Amino acid sequence: MPPHPPIRIAINGYGRIGRCFLRALHASPHRAQFRIVAINEPADLATIAYLTRFDSTHGVFPGKVEAEGDYLHIDGNPIHVTHATTPEGVNWKEHDIDLLVECSGRYTGRDELTRFLDAGCRRVLLSHPGQSAQDVDLTVVYGINHHAITGGERIVSNASCTTNAIVPVLDLLDREFGVEHALMTTLHSVMNDQPLIDGYHHADLRLTRSAMQSMIPVATGLSKGVERLLPQLKGRTQAKSVRVPILNVSAIDLVVSLRRDVAAEDINRLFSSAARRAPAGLLAYSNDPHASVDFNHNPHSATIDGSQTRTIGPRLANLFVWFDNEWGYANRLLDVASYWRACFAKNGR
Ligand SMILES: NC(=O)c1ccc[n+]([C@@H]2O[C@H](COP(=O)([O-])OP(=O)(O)OC[C@H]3O[C@@H](n4cnc5c(N)ncnc54)[C@H](OP(=O)(O)O)[C@@H]3O)[C@@H](O)[C@H]2O)c1
């Protein structure tokens, strides 16, 4: 029996990350801590049930999925489904929500996020960064600063998937060798904000181009995200992001200038030993000859590919970091929810 009754969870926006979060929770040994009681998603219930059962990236759902009335049943447990596009469009109070996991990506400012609290949710966990650090009570990368959660927060951001992948790497490099400058290039699998063939996008010309035909450089807030977590690197990082035509799994090509002389072997030794000590699921290390698909459904925030570590001159290094942007990230959302729950459950819900 868990030490506290399960907390009541809602998912707002049941797309790639919302559905991966439900799956990660279903697969988790800690699932008795949580009960998903509500999902709010514009799509109709039959499609929601269908995409819960069948997933082109992560396979067939291992539990029983049924749709009936306004409810999605997972292994017989009912989840009330609504289709609102505003925080006030759902009667959250009726569902007594301890934690809303916001996975639509539509709400980033404090004013709009507070609307969920005003509408009856006790807390909001974001699957993306806040517009600024001040728009949320805390931005967390699990394994780096989750101990800063006190339980008193109302809005917490789980940062981005790329921030979760690169911050543990930069943090370790900085502590061991000192990071002077860091240049990060993310190779990111396609997302649902891209069309399959050319189509209109109202804010970004590059997102008008066929996702499956091109590598497409897109805007990224990674540098800002890194500096939010590692303020000592402020003004010393830069980032680019390229969407690549694969369904899932991403990588970061990291170029760092360091403050001490290093060889590739020193870097690999550092990360292989850190991976052995890291809590399960956070940091991994491999020397195998990988292709990206090897990391599909991998729960780690980051895997250092030791076969790709290079140095030139005494202090310039290049690392390659793999991560499953969906499954790794959904598992970190769950880790943060679990840690936050332990903090606030002590003082009642
Ligand atoms: N995919 C990744 O690898 C990844 C990793 C980490 C973080 N994230 C972040 O997580 C967020 C979601 O990404 P995603 O890839 O899961 O996107 P997605 O697949 O497009 O899912 C978002 C879902 O939210 C729905 N939605 C739109 N407006 C809504 C509203 N007002 N209320 C409730 N639901 C609404 C969308 O419906 P419509 O399609 O009808 O608009 C869609 O089904 C983004 O902020 C993204 O940056 C994504």
From TrEMBL:
Site entry: Activates thiol group during catalysis: 188
Q: What class of enzyme is it?
A: oxidoreductase
- What InterPro entries does the entry give? GlycerAld/Erythrose_P_DH (IPR020831), GlycerAld_3-P_DH_AS (IPR020830), GlycerAld_3-P_DH_cat (IPR020829), GlycerAld_3-P_DH_NAD(P)-bd (IPR020828), NAD(P)-bd_dom_sf (IPR036291)
Drop me one GO molecular function for this one.
Answer: NAD binding
- The superkingdom listed in its UniProt entry is Bacteria
Question: What Pfam families does the entry give?
Answer: Gp_dh_C, Gp_dh_N
The EC code for this enzyme is 1.2.1.12
The answer, when asked if NAD is one of the entry's keywords, is yes
Active site as annotated: 161
Q: Which SMART domains match?
A: Gp_dh_N
- Residue ranges of domain Glyceraldehyde 3-phosphate dehydrogenase NAD(P) binding in the record: 7-161
UniProt keyword Secreted, yes or no: no
Task: Give the residues the record marks as binding NAD(+).
Answer: 16-17, 127, 325
| UniProt keyword terms in alphabetical order | NAD, Nucleotide-binding, Oxidoreductase
Instruction: Tell me the protein family, please.
Output: Belongs to the glyceraldehyde-3-phosphate dehydrogenase family.
**Subunit structure and binding partners:** Homotetramer.
- Protein name (record): Glyceraldehyde-3-phosphate dehydrogenase
The organism of origin for this protein: Noviherbaspirillum autotrophicum
- Gene name in the database record: gapA
